[in-house]
Protein: FhuF-like iron-sulfur protein
Amino acid sequence: MPLKFAPLPVLLSPEELRARPLGPEHWYSAGELASEGWVPVLFDKLRTEHGPGHRLPAATNFLRVTLREPVFMVSASLYLTGRAPLLSPETLYLPWNTVASRFATPTVVDARLAVLPGDPAAGHPGTVTVRDADEQLERAGRALFSTFEPLVDALHRHSRAGKRTLWGWVLDTLHFYMLNPARYLGRDAEGAWELASRLADAVVAAGAVTRKRPRLFPFAPEHPRGTWAVRGTCCFDYKGDPEHGFCTTCPLKCDSERQEDLSEWLSNPALAP
Structure:
């Protein structure tokens, strides 16, 4: 069954990257974007051209448009296939469209996977065979942290958004991107949440910081899609769009209102995420 929501990055080989046609996009690796001082420039351009005006939702929006697909790739691949993509600052590319003044779809070049012994892909080029699931999670978490930390640090210094806020967005999204496939496919939401929590533990052990982790929110436990979650960290979208108010998953929203909103999703699937 295809997922309703699957924001994957583009996957290219090094040869395909070199042979890409010329266009309006300037291709930055994640490492270059941070080390060469482009984060402040592109953050300001994105905020000026498209908003939001408030610096806090602008900061989490910057993470959304650069890191959403890589986070989904790591979380969903680990949950659905048992294989963990190993990101790096040199192989994650974030193309900037100079005409539209926005980021295009992130691209991962020469993707490598951490696989368990007995996996049919073990020993194949592009895979690293680990001892067990603990080592797989540790390597995936360390790779994710080392890839994202230069961007998070540059964004923190320029936007003045706290690192706990920025890493909180990453960790919340990591959890949601295991939970969402589980819900949509009618699988065990608690099992997906437990695996996401273990991956998040590995990212924190590598150096990520956050104030509070997200929590499960069963709103109709008898229904296969009756479990959703509450973010540990507010994304501050409401500051950029006050009329919209708090998101359904916002930690600032009261649970009774959240329960009502989520129950409407089951009665009217068109409202569901």
